[in-house]
């Protein structure tokens, strides 16, 4: 199994900053710490309502990632406004996500099957600008097939339901959700898509997700920023990285 990349999502550093309308803590500084701690890339979601990451943050993060040779993964809704911003910045990667103003976080995956006529042109425009396009979807066979049809190079499988089942100690549901993710990863890889995963991942759930065959990248945010309160961001990222590496290390043969 090759080394899985870790994208660190720094949105919630901005959530804390914005809660007081202050200029700190700075997402840019968090991105610098994340890179120093071994993050393979920085992920940020510019939401329509700008509740956390701002346009200025994206400017700064783009410049930092360029300087440091690290990929910026811009999470964005499929809107005219976001598409224009992405085409202006031309980030390394864009992850298209569903967005509803009233949600607390990204709930569920993108309906690629039902939104082909809206999503496929956005995928095409981003790809033509040199951005690698990922679609954030539920591990659902129809959505995965639609993602390939829409021309995406990557799918990011929504791990929220699995992580929630583990946190709620619902073992049966956790097994079911993990199997769904495994089947989704196998289907996507079979269609030639690169497979990423994310949402709700913590120390308790990262091992099983990282061990899913075919997963190339995990994007993790909220838990790491919360954990940073107690042990610091660098230590939290290093621990997550160590758990990912342990999950993908080949088992030693027993004599
Ligand atoms: N991947 C995608 C597409 C997301 O929308 C999010 C949440 O912004 C994440 C990963 C990270 O999720 P979390 O903050 O729960 O780790």
Describe the protein:
By secondary structure, the protein is of the alpha/beta class. It has a single domain (5-250), classed as Aldolase class I (TIM Barrel, Alpha-Beta Barrel). The protein is 50% helix and 16% strand. An eight-stranded parallel barrel has the order 1-2-3-4-5-6-7-8, surrounded by seven helices. Helix 2 (27-36) runs parallel beside helix 3, helix 7 (160-167) runs antiparallel to helix 8 and helix 10 crosses helix 11 (233-248). The longest helix has 20 residues, at 171-190. The mean pLDDT is 95. It binds pyridoxine-5'-phosphate. Residues 9, 11, 45, 75, 95, 97, 105-106, 136, 156, 198-201, 219-223 line the site of pyridoxine-5'-phosphate.
What does this entry show, briefly?
This protein is α/β, with parallel strands linked by helices and 255 residues long. The chain has helices spanning 11-19, 27-36, 55-68, 80-89, 116-128, 141-149, 160-167, 171-190, 203-210, 222-231, 233-248, and strands at 5-9, 41-45, 72-76, 93-96, 132-137, 154-158, 194-198, 215-220. Pyridoxine-5'-phosphate (PXP) binds at residues 9, 11, 45, 75, 95, 97, 105-106, 136, 156, 198-201, 219-223.
């Amino acid at each position: 199994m090759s080394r899985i990349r870790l994208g660190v999502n720094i949105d919630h550093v901005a959530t804390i900053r914005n809660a007081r309308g202050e200029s700190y803590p700075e997402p840019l500084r968090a991105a610098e710490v994340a890179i120093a701690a071994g993050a393979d890339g920085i992920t940020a979601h510019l939401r329509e309502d700008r509740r956390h990451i701002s346009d200025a943050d994206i400017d700064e993060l783009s410049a930092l990632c360029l300087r440091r040779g690290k990929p910026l993964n811009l999470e964005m809704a499929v809107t005219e406004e976001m598409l224009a911003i992405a085409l202006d910045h031309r980030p390394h990667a864009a992850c298209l996500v569903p967005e509803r103003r009233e949600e607390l976080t990204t709930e569920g995956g993108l309906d690629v099957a039902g939104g082909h006529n809206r999503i496929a042109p956005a995928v095409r425009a981003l790809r033509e600008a040199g951005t690698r396009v990922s679609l954030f979807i539920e591990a659902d066979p129809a959505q995965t097939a639609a993602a390939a049809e829409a021309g995406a190079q990557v799918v990011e499988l929504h791990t929220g339901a699995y992580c929630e089942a583990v946190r709620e100690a619902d073992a049966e549901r956790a097994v079911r959700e993990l199997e769904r993710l495994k089947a989704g990863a196998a289907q996507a890889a079979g269609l030639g898509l690169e497979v990423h995963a994310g949402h709700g991942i913590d120390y308790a759930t990262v091992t099983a997700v990282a061990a899913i065959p075919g997963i190339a990248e995990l994007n993790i945010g909220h838990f790491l920023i919360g954990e940073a309160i107690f042990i610091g961001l660098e230590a939290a990222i290093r621990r997550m990285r160590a758990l990912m590496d342990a999950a993908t290390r080949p088992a030693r043969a027993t004599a």
